[in-house]
Amino acid sequence: MHDRTSERSGNARHALDLGDNEPTKVIHVVRLGADDDVVWSRDVIGLGDAADLSDSESYLSCLPDLGLDENVRLHHVALHGRGCHGNATVGTASEKQRVGAPEAVITVADLGEFGLIAAIQAVLPPDPSAIVGVGDDAAVLAVPDGRVVASTDLLVEGRHFRRDWSAPKEIGAKAAAQNLADIAAMGAVPTALLFGLAIPGEIEVAWVLDVARGMADECSRAGATIAGGDISSADAVMLAITALGHLAGRQPVTRGGARVGDVLAISGPVGRSAAGLALLRASAADTSPGAAGLAAAHRRPQPDYHAGPQAAAAGATAMIDISDGLVADVGHLAAASGVALNVVTDSLPGVADLSAAAAVLGADWLGWALAGGEDHALAATFPAAAAVPVTWTVIGDASSGSGVLVNGHRWNAVAGWDHFPNRRG
User: I need a labelling partner for 267 at 20 to 30 A (CA). Which of 40, 81, 188, 363 fits?
Assistant: First the structure.
């Protein structure tokens, strides 16, 4: 209700129902457009309110259940996330319980494309550094040192996440993390993220907004912002992410700079996401605090974004994000650099939880550590152990030759994830 209406005190927190009064009947049974007015003594919904975005997060999710076009605004009424199904309710949970108001399920199809876009915009924090931010045809961003570092990736439902395993904020954070980690792996500082979201129409609006919040939270952890995006309908959820960054005046750290005699180090533990996935598949994620932590690592990896620029400043000669598996990704470093890289498994950090989970499942923790992906720790080579930052762990070294050795021997098992494995022969 508009703050200029003649509604009595307390009515703004009352459940709207067809039996209450005539204006409520109008709201429930007449589909109103953005240019329509409802008049009762003074404006209830005024023409100017359709353009008022000042509190759009508060009301958009319940407009379809009131029969309003997605572009109509209810001014100063906090409807968002508080339910309006049959009855439109406003107020706290205790007040809703007092009036017996049921919760709403508002879907993307109910809200419509542009209503959903406006709702997503409302939950994204502003970027004061953007020249042109969210809401135009394209964002315009400042380039601190004249060079842009860019990376893109896809997350597909059923392949990279499951909605029954992961909360929407976790899915959004994971989508952001796996791309922002690629920026850090170049020795760069993450600055911005663009996302494309394809979703079925029956998905709840609240679920989509929490995905956006998860992305925004992870961007904030990395020191980045969300610069824009796009939405499409699809039969399953898919996120397409583009991350941007800058080099802070340094040269990029590529995969091709490792030299014979360098040491190999990683910025965090590996195998945790793969172990968590195995526990989730076996419905064993709650068997112990350690198991719960592994499942959380799969649902929401938390890369150390500062580790990339830190390694670059320390003189790292080559670097990569461990997304497909330690052996597979270190193999990319070895191939690009023309050296052999040896991994010493006794040096791997954080294996106690892996070992405990392997005992529960009757599995081999070493397979998770060496071939499990989606940890998003960084692997890098340094000219000497003395150059390795204190937050990194030395796990091996570079020598003449090619490929990856594990404890001095060729690793003949699966090296990591491959979307299109060679099935010939």
Answer: 363
Q: Enumerate the β-bridge partners of residue 168.
A: none
What is the pLDDT, as a whole number, of residue 14? 41
The DSSP 8-state label assigned to residue 188 in this structure reads P
pLDDT band, residue 73 (cuts 50/70/90): very low
* Contact assessment for residue 179 and residue 195, using Cβ atoms and an 8 Å cutoff: no
Return the CATH architecture of domain 263-410. Answer: Alpha-Beta Complex (3.90)
Domain ranges across the chain? 11-106, 125-246, 263-410
* Cβ proximity of 226 and 216 under 8 Å: yes
Query: Dihedral sign, CA of 172, 174, 175, 177?
Result: positive
Give residue-wise pLDDT tens across range 314-355.
Answer: 999 999 999 999 999 999 999 999 999 999 999 999 999 999
Length of the chain: 425
DSSP line for 216-237: HHHHHHHT-EEEEEEEEE-SS-
Quick check: 363 pLDDT over 60?
yes
Helix (H, G, I), strand (E, B) or coil at 337: helix
Q: Strands 225-233 and 189-199: what pairing?
A: parallel
Tokens coding 144 = 């601190």
pLDDT confidence of residue 127: 87
Give CA angle at 340 (337, 345), nearest 5°: 125
SS3 content of the chain, % helix, strand, coil (to 5): 35, 20, 45
pLDDT of residue 421: 61
Which candidate, 225, 264, 229, places its Cα nearest to that of 244?
225
Nearest to 385 by CA among 394, 376, 372, 373: 394
| CA R_g for the chain | 26
User: Residue 92 has what pLDDT?
Assistant: 34
CA angle 20, 21, 25 (to 5 degrees): 95
Strand order in the sheet with 403-406: 318-321, 378-382, 263-266, 393-399, 340-343, 403-406, 409-410
Mean pLDDT of 110-134: 89
* Three-state SS at 396: strand
Separation of first and last alpha carbons in the chain: 70
Spell out the residues 6+ positions from residue 393 whose beta carbon is closer than 8 angstroms to its own: 265, 266, 267, 347, 348, 349
CATH class given for the domain over 125-246: alpha beta
What are 52-68's pLDDT values in tens digits? 444 434 334 333 333 44
